[in-house]
Amino acid sequence: MDHLLGNASNQSSNLSKEDCSLPLAHGVALITVNTIVGVFGSLGNLLVCVAVAKNPRLRRSSNYLLFSLAIADLIVTMVCEPLVVGILGKMIFFNDCAANLDLPYKILSRLSCSASVVHMAAISVDRFIAVVYPLRYKSIIDNYGLKILLVTSWALPITVPVLSAVIPASFPKAFLALGMFAISYVIVFLSYSLIVISLVKHRKERIQLRARSSSDTSQSRVEIRVASTLAIVIAIFTVSWFPLVATLFAAGKPLIKNQGIAHMWIRTLALSNSAMNFVIYGSRMYNFREVYAVYGRKILGVLRPKCSRTRVYNLPLESISST
User: Fold this and answer.
1) Total structural domains in the chain?
2) What is the span of the domain harbouring residue 269?
3) pLDDT tens-place string over residues 248-259
4) Whose CA is closest to 15, among 303, 254, 306, 205?
5) Are 64 and 150 in contact (CB under 8 A)?
6) Range with lowest mean pLDDT among 78-82, 128-132, 171-175, 209-213
């Protein structure tokens, strides 16, 4: 994959001015969408980080993994999106491919995408242990499991490009990144397959949970709901990134024009995934939704006095004196 991306970078550097231009209508629409994704996604991912850090009820292993995933998403929304807006601006108004902006964008977006994939594999393993081995889950995760998952989620995405730069050119470097993606998705598939098999296999046991303590039953339901929520996160990530990966790498060469209209819209779809996760958490998890509401009210409380002062300052002098 790194080799293919390198070829794509070389192609972009050799593009003519015609190849580095975009129609004004598409360009303005792309800038608008990417700006909204950048601002909305940054606020949302920061809210996830604050929610997990500040709320004791959200301090559990799966949410620490979501905290780490939100950091990977912040790389996209706070850094990659402004770079994309800058690239689009240069293409629209100056017919410039902005190679100086495109290179850091490719490096950081590659890091974020790789980190997201490995995080999802780690989240799948966490959910597998929680659902299939609920009695051993706490001891496994608290002792060493969470640390291993978090370190691996960042070590692999950083190590692969470093190895690609060090190993000889004769080695098929593309297999490093592709292998990491493939292994991550195999782990995701196996983990959720085993979760489903376990739930089906122990259906009778779960029915009998009614005779046990209600706390055990409710805890089991919580773990299953969290697992299904994170499955939705993984599915939406796959749908968002698949068109870009398929058009760039499916045939061993790009299937669409690099820096063209289709490429820019497909790239925007992929990047927009980084602004979706916090919405999923809020819609599916009550604790996240509750924390969002609390901090939303706090933000409104801070803004309200400023708005009130602005109204007073804008009143005519006669109105102020009469009051």
Assistant:
1) 1
2) 2-284
3) 766 566 677 877
4) 254
5) yes
6) 209-213
